[in-house]
Amino acid sequence: MGLGAFLSGSGAHGGSWRHPQADADASLNFQRYRHYAQTLERGCFDALFLNDNVAVGDLDPRVLARSSYSLRWDPLTLLPALAVVTRHIGLIATASTSYNEPYNLARKFASLDHLSEGRAGWNLVTGLVGGENFNHPEPLSHAERYARAEEFFSVASGLWDSWADDAFPRDKASGQWLRPERMHLLQHRGRHFQVQGPLNAPRPLQGWPVIAQAGSSGPGCELAARCAELVFTAQTDLQQAKAFYRELKERLPAYGRHAGQLKIFPGIAPTVGRTLNEAEEKYQQLQELQNPQAQLKALSYLLDLGIDLSHLPLHAQVPLLDDAAPTERHKSRRHLVQELIRRERPSLAQLLRSLSASGHKVLVGTPGQIVDELATWYQEYAADGFNVLFTHLPGAIDDFVQLLTPELQRRGLFRQRYTGHSLREHLGLARVENRFFSHRGNG
Questions:
Q1: What CATH architecture does domain 2-162+198-277+360-427 belong to?
Q2: Fewer Cβ close by (within 10 Å): the C or N end of the chain?
């Protein structure tokens, strides 16, 4: 199975930055990121993944005062620095198709792929939050964001194919630096973009960076089937995860693709201890560090629920929310939460426990217990691997690498060492052929 590492703030848990083993300044300290990346590399992770937003988010003072996620560095500035201090781990940056231009982004990812010697990945998001900072005071509709994303990807990937691999002889004797006939002008004229090309950067070493995507709505799954090679998804129930896995892979033939060209990594948030009691104590310590009202306020904002859950007592049963107005915000995540509420009818306190990792699967137990669960999901075709949301940094990374990685390796579920160099090799994905130059002509 594969493993990705989700890095955000001081950790994925709402109380993470207050934990004694957490770095409260993690989002803004390069030395800490270097430590995380190198520890993950010792643990043989396929990739580390930096999420991103282009806005602070919820400006409610009660949320802002207690959240460590308000400030963060640009992933495409941070990852080139991490490329210098690592050798194997893949480097995946989140970047929005709503608030970027294809040419600039294609150039940055091509550069990252060369600087990292073939380890770059792009987590393609449509980016709802942040329009007010980009001349869009009203958010783009869900349909408009996905239409723009499809065209954006088509342009960016076309730009990566601007040059054949043999386009640059750099022959000092003849004086020929490049072969113009091995250049392709894109000349794209579309609804959202007009881009001539070519890209003024060489083709990525992997052909294209690995394309990751996280949408689970209908349009999100269709976009993933068309262009994604790695899908991050929030799934908490095995049967629902198996259905998502099967249905998404069944969409691939319509785009001339097969199941092996798309890897599905559900998110997990493990808390591991040498005994179950130790793991439960660790998790309870985290729960006590978060502010329930601030977390409920943030959840109400994130999912656009139409009611403020923070006004309700923690022992109260969560309303069903079936009559919540339609939203353009995080549709698939909202649906997941509504299904969880309908299935479990939890109190607000129980809901906070279930959603302590933003709707991803929470696992609390010994190495054997947690690996049993991961093995079941992997062997029953609910996952090709997992995207690990660490509850607090660096403590949870250290726990995973010291306790869970050895158990995965002992059972033959995970690599003992890196055998490839590029991110594509780690994931079992082929280098992307240049669409404009044949394999024979491409050298």
A1: Alpha-Beta Barrel (3.20)
A2: C
Known binding residues are 52, 94, 142, 146, 216-217
- What is the token pair recorded at 168? 């640059």
C-alpha dihedral over 97, 101, 106, 109, to 10 degrees? Answer: -70
C-alpha span between 212 and 204 (Å, rounded): 16
Q: What angle do CA 400, 380, 401 make, to 5 degrees?
A: 10
Whole-Å CA distances, 408 to 52, 391, 438 = 30, 20, 41
The owner of tokens 């942040």 is 130
- Which residue, among 182, 186, 223, 214, has the nearest Cα to 106 in the 3D structure? 186
Antiparallel, parallel or unpaired: β 90-96 and 47-50: parallel
Residues 6 or more apart whose CB falls under 8 angstroms from that of 294 comprise 14, 62, 63, 65, 66, 67, 310
Domain ranges of the chain: 2-162+198-277+360-427, 291-355
Residues making up the binding site for FMN: 52, 94, 142, 146, 216-217
